[in-house]
UniProtKB/TrEMBL annotation:
One of its GO terms (molecular function) is protein-N(PI)-phosphohistidine-sugar phosphotransferase activity. Its main location: membrane. GO terms for cellular component: plasma membrane. This is Membrane spanning protein. Pfam families: PTS_EIIC_2 (PF13303). Residues 10-342 form the Phosphotransferase system EIIC domain. InterPro entries: PTS_EIIC.
């Protein structure tokens, strides 16, 4: 089994992207609806439990997707999933047993998957009849072990980025809004967790609102840029789910950061000018699950027709308009990009 470095890298990034979408989309689509219906239908609380449980399986799902894309055998793919669970760090050993919370550190998950991937490539089919006995243990111990060792230092990267982001909140509000929108738009299409950053620095108020709008701007822009190359459902998933699905495409062609970052900066600045706010828990979500818009509405302290219209304009109408103008400029006029740059294939 011979694969070059580019193939391995793209397989890992694509697998991560698909795993993230599969794990997060149920919560993104259902949780906001359930939250609104819970007072009348408390039985729906089980749906939130189900979507939360699905999120914690992100490491294993991503590993399975990587294995499928790489054409690994079921034994190799399952072994990679075992290592991923350990490397992601969302399982913790306590005095009472194992506990699981969150999705884990996606950067460290990527490192763990890369180590496991290389172990599988190196061993190939050399173990023959002993494959089922040795591959699960070797991949778990080697890749999972390395993942445990790197988890602390890698998590420190997220904290360091958080410190830099926190410093930006001290700037003039509109400048801060523009920069916050751009930063979170860039982060949302990398393995770095925007929710983790926002929570770590307790990002709230205008900073959180601008971060939300930056992600919204990126989400709608990416959906529009690739709408001719992707099915309708895939395009909708960019903002209903997560724009992280474009991670492999954008990281392999860094110039694609520019168009969406401009949209994100514009929206973030407008949000700051209009005093749109958010919370640490909402700042990294954007439009997904209506978390961003609902947090902004809650901060307004009143549910009025004017407030709803303002948020509809900011979180839906304006992002679509900016995305289309940006599409005309960068795709049609400047030929800076083509829809195929954003094509996603899940077959």
């Amino acid at each position: 089994m011979k694969q070059d470095a580019k193939t391995v890298t793209m397989n890992i990034l694509n697998g991560l992207s698909v795993g993230i979408i599969v794990a997060l989309v149920p919560g993104a689509i259902l949780n906001a609806i359930v939250k609104l219906l819970l007072p009348s239908f408390p039985q729906l609380a089980v749906v939130t439990y189900m979507t939360t449980a699905a999120m914690t399986l992100l490491p294993a799902l991503s590993a399975v997707c990587v294995g499928m894309i790489a054409k690994f055998t079921p034994i190799q793919t399952s072994s990679l999933a075992l290592a991923a669970i350990i490397g992601a760090g969302n399982y913790h050993l306590t005095k009472t047993g194992l506990t699981v919370a969150g999705t884990g550190d996606v950067i460290n998950l990527a490192i763990t998957l890369a180590i496991g991937y290389l172990v599988i490539l190196l061993l190939g089919n050399a173990l023959k009849a002993y494959t089922i006995l040795l591959i699960p243990s070797l991949v778990l111990l080697i890749a999972g072990g390395v993942g445990m060792l790197t988890l602390g230092p890698v998590s420190g990267i997220t904290k360091y980025i958080g410190v830099l982001v926190h410093d930006i909140t001290a700037l003039q509000p509109i400048v801060m809004g523009v920069l916050m929108g751009i930063i979170f738009a860039v982060l949302i299409v990398t393995p770095i967790s925007t929710v983790g950053i926002a929570t770590a620095i307790s990002l709230s108020g205008i900073g959180a609102g601008s971060a939300n709008l930056g992600i919204v701007g990126a989400s709608f822009a990416l959906a529009v840029y690739g709408w001719k190359a992707n099915p309708l459902g895939t395009s909708l998933a960019h903002f209903l789910g997560s724009p992280k699905m474009q991670m492999a495409n954008i990281l392999s062609k860094p110039k694609l950061f520019l168009p969406m970052a401009i949209n994100a900066g514009i929206l973030g600045g407008i949000g700051a000018a209009l005093n749109i706010q958010g919370t640490p828990a909402s700042a990294g979500f954007g439009f997904s699950g209506l978390v961003g818009p609902l947090a902004a509405l809650d901060a307004m302290k009143a549910v009025t027709v004017g407030n709803i219209l303002e948020l509809t304009l900011l979180f839906f109408v304006l992002p679509i308009g900016l995305a289309y103008i940006s599409y005309l400029l960068f795709t049609k006029t400047l030929r800076y990009q083509v829809p195929e740059d954003y094509a996603l294939h899940y077959d």
